[in-house]
Design goal:
Blueprint lengths: L18 H26 L2 H23 L2 E7 L4 E10 L2 E4 L7 E2 L4 E8 L3 E3 L3 E6 L8 E7 L4 E6 L6 E5 L9
Length: 179
């Protein structure tokens, strides 16, 4: 009783994490990954997706412009240079003539090219130039544009002739019969 041998050494707290703490950290990391991954993949996805959005936005804007200004606009696609631009058709002496490009020519990203363009008035165009027209009524020439990335992935842009809305689909989708 009362001797020094009665004292028990106090165990030191051991370092480390409990299973619950580890599970909470893993769960938080999983949530962060779920939130960040879509943005990361959208930044890494091909330039063709970005080019598709640009062309779709241009056509949508031209439909509005054509209706508001009562003019015909033409989007020309150069399959050799992979550029596209807008011109306005004007009435000169009873004949429609193409005016100079409206704004600067736009180039597809370096990794992307026009594979082909299909229109109701030109059919399948695989080289040279193709064009689609936007009329004052809001009607657009039926058009299918195929973009190809260097890694051989494809995107198909289809212009709805009634609404002018452009749908973008992953892969190469054959154009509907223009008839």
């Amino acid at each position: 009783p009362g001797g020094s041998g009665d004292l028990q050494p106090v165990p030191l707290a051991q370092g480390g994490f409990t299973l619950i703490e580890i599970m909470i950290v893993v769960m938080i990391l999983g949530l962060v990954a779920m939130l960040v991954a879509p943005r990361l993949f959208s930044m890494l996805e091909g330039d063709a997706r970005s080019a598709s959005r640009d062309v779709a936005g241009l056509v949508a804007a031209l439909v509005q412009e054509a209706v508001a200004s009562h003019t015909i606009h033409r989007v020309t696609f150069d399959l050799e240079t992979n550029e596209y631009w807008v011109t306005t058709l004007t009435q000169a002496g009873g004949v429609l003539e193409e005016s100079p490009p409206v704004g600067a020519k736009r180039a597809l990203p370096a990794e992307v090219r026009f594979q082909d363009v299909v229109t109701s008035h030109q059919g399948l165009v695989t080289e040279g130039r193709a064009f689609t027209q936007v009329f004052p009524s809001g009607i657009v020439t039926r058009t299918t544009i195929h973009l190809e990335e260097r890694d051989r992935s494809h995107y198909t842009l289809t212009v709805n002739p009634i609404t002018g809305r452009v749908t973008v689909v992953d892969g190469y989708v054959e154009a509907k019969d223009p008839a």
